[in-house]
Amino acid sequence: MNMDQISQHTDAKKLLKSLQEVLKSKKITYADLALQMEVSEVTVKRLFSTQNCNLQTVFRICDLVGISFFDLAALANQDKEVDYVLSEDQEKFFATNPAMFGIFRALHRGVSPDKLAEVWKLSSQKMFKVLRKIEQFGLLEVLPKNQVRIKAVGNIRFQHKGPLARAILRPQIMQFLDHVDVVLKNKDVCMHSAEVELSKKSITELVEEIHALGAKYRARALRDKNLLSADQLQSVRWLFAFAPFETNWQQYELKD
């Protein structure tokens, strides 16, 4: 198979099918795409029906519809979790400026720089400086008119005991648990807590299922991000924690 040709290849079919899903989610018709590509609508229809095109064409369509090729590839492999793990330098930078991390996460989710500037009450010049600062760490590319191209592909992850976790994780977890306590009666909120006795086999199975559940919905999050606009998504958080543990009840005073 020609290195530049992706037709008649299983992964190619996944890529083109995912492109069709992106077009549908963004309400871009074949006619719209044909107009942007300066070709006939028949040509575009043939491209998707025959699944015969080269990588250069796929890259071009990705640019036109606003999705990176790497995000498209991740979308095509929707059953697989795709992570972007921050480097030590990136973590140190965000640990000293958590607000910058919040802005980057929003950009990564698809929120526009203009919208963020409005929310954070930043001037266009200040927003440009923020984007340039993040760009220095290889996470995005600043384009004209304060637009960006995200270079960090996948769900953003950082080390459990790294600089960023030490700076923000514990206080955020406490804030999250306090919030859950307030909204626990809502139908879209849940919390489970138990202290029981399990066999080693059951413990192993439970840990594996927790890992699988987290991976499943991180992969789903990446898919939703690539198929839906930012205003169709809702920020959520979950916390799975499991360990062999026994409460020390003797820490409490025994009263008559």
Automatic annotation (TrEMBL):
InterPro entries: Cro/C1-type_HTH, Lambda_DNA-bd_dom_sf
HTH cro/C1-type domain location: 19-73
GO MF annotation terms: DNA binding
Source superkingdom: Bacteria
Entry protein name: HTH cro/C1-type domain-containing protein
